[in-house]
Design a protein that fits this description.
Layout lengths: L46 H19 L3 E8 L14 E5 L2 E3 L1 E7 L4 E8 L8 H15 L5 E7 L3 E8 L2 H10 L14 E2 L2 E2 L12 H12 L6 E8 L10 H10 L3 E7 L15 H11 L3 E5 L2 H15 L2 E6 L10 E8 L5 E3 L3 E3 L7
Parallel strand pairs: 5-6, 5-10, 10-11, 11-12
Antiparallel strand pairs: 1-13, 1-15, 2-3, 2-14, 4-13, 6-7, 8-9, 14-16
Helix pairs in contact: 2-3, 2-7, 4-5, 5-6
Length: about 375
């Protein structure tokens, strides 16, 4: 994990970024029961709590003996409203087209959340950055609970970790307000290590918004070391300029870290000229969110829309279902496995990641 308060310049983090995510983030296990939970006597135990304990114990057994693919997802109706109170019988799971047996199911609203806020501080955000800070801080105050953790990262010509994991709202707010517009040039002294090895530092071409590099770094270097529910929220216009990695590398890193990506598309259309000419950031952001189980919310430069977007994301993160299954394909060959969750009734819309990488288990 990155050290607290470390400012992570991507042009000097070859030591921090390591090739090959060997961590089996995509096949994480559901949380085990808390060992320090208070015991209750038989007369005060309810049938419901007894069933929950039995389920948790069975999951613990599975966790010890096999690797479970864990999927967090939302269910919506045709109008986009969240559907609560569904059961395991409402779903079927398929991996590469083959039906899987659901071993674990639960509606998760209180499971600890690990959250990353990635804020675009490039020149194009000059007139909307203060709005992002104010509304983002309010969102963190509403969503972060004592057992949750969050970090704040800004990206422009560099990628800076402004605050490492903490549940302190004051520290997170301070970090957000530290983000400053940065359009200055930087030196070219070695690049990060990407999926195919060192990324060459180009001496030509602009470096203005290292969006893809930021998603890769947040996924690979921060979230891949965490377990449980993980999400990233990107506050950006979606335009990348100068990243040494590609959108496909960012998506792969997020999938391997098992991180849901939301993008709040904040664009000062005036920066791109009348009518937003030349603006096309939403295309790649839709790829990122669709593959990881999140979505893009376009708010333009309107504070009210931004607040609504944060409210929607908060509701989704607190209204997730969690399904776990043991893959029938036991090979850990590093290949990508396409996963599909189908609902009963079929008209419900499932918002989930598209699959996972069957990477080899790391030997500690």
């Amino acid at each position: 994990m990155l050290m607290p308060r470390l400012h992570c310049k991507l042009n000097c983090t070859a030591m921090a970024l390591v090739v090959g995510l060997s961590m089996v983030a995509a096949a994480q296990t559901p949380p085990a029961p808390a060992s320090n939970a208070p015991s209750s006597n038989a007369s005060s135990s309810t049938a419901s709590s007894s069933n929950d304990q039995s389920q948790d114990q069975s999951v613990e057994t599975l966790k010890v003996n096999v690797e479970i693919v864990q999927l967090f997802f939302n269910v919506k109706d045709k109008h986009g409203a969240l559907i609560p109170s569904l059961t395991k019988d409402n779903f079927d799971v398929f991996e590469d087209g083959k039906a899987q047996t659901i071993k674990y199911f639960k509606a998760e609203s209180d499971l600890p959340l690990t959250l990353g806020i990635l804020i675009d501080s490039s020149g194009s955000q000059q007139r909307v950055l203060d709005m992002e800070k104010e509304v983002g801080a309010s969102f963190l105050e509403n969503i972060i609970r004592p057992k949750d953790e969050a970090f704040v990262l800004s990206f422009d010509v560099d990628v800076d970790l402004l605050q490492d994991f903490t549940n302190s709202i004051s520290r997170l707010r301070h970090a957000l307000y530290e983000a400053k517009i940065n359009t200055g040039g930087v030196g070219c002294s070695g690049g990060p290590i990407g999926p195919q090895g060192p990324i060459p530092c180009s001496s030509s071409g602009p470096r203005g918004t290292l969006l893809y590099d930021a998603v890769y770094l947040a996924s690979h270097d921060v979230l891949s070391h965490e377990v449980g529910r993980k999400a990233m929220i990107l506050l950006t216009d979606g335009e990348d300029q100068g990243s040494r990695l590609k959108i496909k590398d960012a998506i792969e890193a997020a999938q391997k870290a098992d991180a849901i990506c939301y993008v709040i598309l904040i664009a000062d259309r005036g920066f791109y000229g009348f009518g937003g000419f030349g603006y096309s950031g939403d295309t790649e952001m839709k790829k990122l969110t669709q593959e990881t189980g999140g979505r893009v919310i376009d708010v333009g430069n309107k504070p009210d829309k931004l607040r609504k977007a944060f409210d929607e994301i908060s509701n989704e993160l607190r209204s997730q279902y969690n399904i776990g299954y043991t893959p029938t394909n036991t090979a850990r060959d590093g290949s990508f496995r396409k996963v599909e969750i189908k609902s009963k009734p079929a008209e419900y819309k499932i918002q989930a990641r598209s699959g996972y990488y069957a990477t080899a288990k790391r030997e500690d």
